[in-house]
Amino acid sequence: MGFDEHYECVVVGGGPAGATTATILAQHGRKPLLLERSAFPRQHIGESLMPQTYWTFKRLGMLEKMQASDFPRKESVQFVPPSGKDSQPYYFTDRDPGEWSITWQVCRDTFDKMMLDNAREHGVTVREGVRVSKVVMDGSRAVGVEAVIDGQMKRIGADVVVDATGMAGLLAKSLKLREPEPDLKNASIYAYYKGARRDGGRNSGATIIIHTPDRKGWFWFIPLPDGMASIGIVAPPAYLFAGRGDDPTATLTEEIAKTPGIASRLDGAERLTEAFVTSDFSYRSSQLAGDGWVMVGDAFGFLDPVYSSGVFLALKSGEFAADAIHGALSAGDPSGERLGAWGADFTTGMHLMRQLVYAFYDPSFSFGKFAKAHPEHQDSIVRLLIGDVFNDEVGRVFETLGDWMTLPGAVPLKAE
Ligand SMILES: Cc1cc2nc3c(=O)[nH]c(=O)nc-3n(C[C@H](O)[C@H](O)[C@H](O)COP(=O)(O)OP(=O)(O)OC[C@H]3O[C@@H](n4cnc5c(N)ncnc54)[C@H](O)[C@@H]3O)c2cc1C
Q1: CATH architecture of 5-71+106-179+282-404
Q2: What confidence tens digit (pLDDT) does each residue in 68-86 have?
Q3: CB-defined site of ligand 1, < 6 Å
Q4: Could you tell me the CA-to-CA distances from 92 to 170, 245, 291, 301 in Å, in that order?
């Protein structure tokens, strides 16, 4: 089909999902090409990690780099109810004191660059500033990509194309596979602050989730290096934007003032940036792979920011996909069936997290009340919060938790 170059595998997008996929392919002895439209470091939301990222970091050779970083250590998460009363944090190390129970709060510009540099160190060919305009299809089989490189349109052939383009969703949008989460229509306004008050001791690196007093939305408080903090509100767009004017920074400031749990932490703090806005972020694709292509990370789906599961699922899907691609290429069979063989396991784990997300948004649910009523499920809740979702045991909590919430059906995953 007239290609300028050919690679076994082209990964489109150099965020955590793309970098993970490409690095593990290189560890398998493959020589992938990764194309990233931005020049790193670049700004990105999503700073709070889940402890279960530890195992992927270890596999990627990233663990020592994370341990040597100045990223704050995150040992717990705390949910503050609409009353504003402080609640008992969930300490990950109380359940398992291993070093894998402590994770990091990262600046994504620095972290994503560390991941991409690590991919390069493993032998991945990375080209930044290259925006892929389309995936080239031969019928329903992906056979390469088109991108402008050094001012010229180039066609690069590939046995497998990995869509790791995040919310941009190159393939999911062109193949019309993206489905919104029916009852999670939210938007977010966020900004960065310096000098916010932090709790002390083992709580100093905690993520704090604070409901607004009217329960219309919730805030995240994420401590970052150099006394910085990421602060954001999540709420339905109708609430955040209707009748407010068009200054999101003013809206964020107004909402902070109305929520004592966050206002008191920001008393005397300096806002370092204007507010950023993002919306329509809860969706999933109805297909994960097809002949010659596979999706990873946000390109496949994103649930919701509340449990900080995005980067973890991006890393995990990158791991699953890279192993499947290596197996498919070794067998000379890059069919959708082989490339997406991990889809059922992955979406089962993702669905556990999804149920916990719906519980959080259900007005009848509160972590405090549930813990009091069902102390026998505390362990499962902590396991979900650390990202321990790829096993059968923790799902049992939903036999009880199911009574506390309404759960719409999930998008079925089409056979490849
Ligand atoms: C409000 C909000 C808060 C969040 N908070 C958290 C959090 O605290 N913790 C957490 O874990 N997650 C959080 N997330 C989710 C997290 O940001 C994502 O899940 C994570 O970044 C997914 O990684 P990715 O590699 O799939 O996508 P991305 O990190 O988005 O990477 C995709 C890359 O693809 C590139 N790209 C796109 N299109 C093209 C193209 N055509 N050609 C070449 N390159 C392209 C982009 O430039 C980008 O670098 C949050 C999300 C939202 C919306």
Answers
A1: 3-Layer(bba) Sandwich (3.50)
A2: 999 999 999 999 988 888 7
A3: 12-18, 35-38, 44-49, 131-132, 164-168, 170, 188, 232, 278, 281, 297-299, 302, 305, 308, 310-312, 314
A4: 36, 42, 41, 26
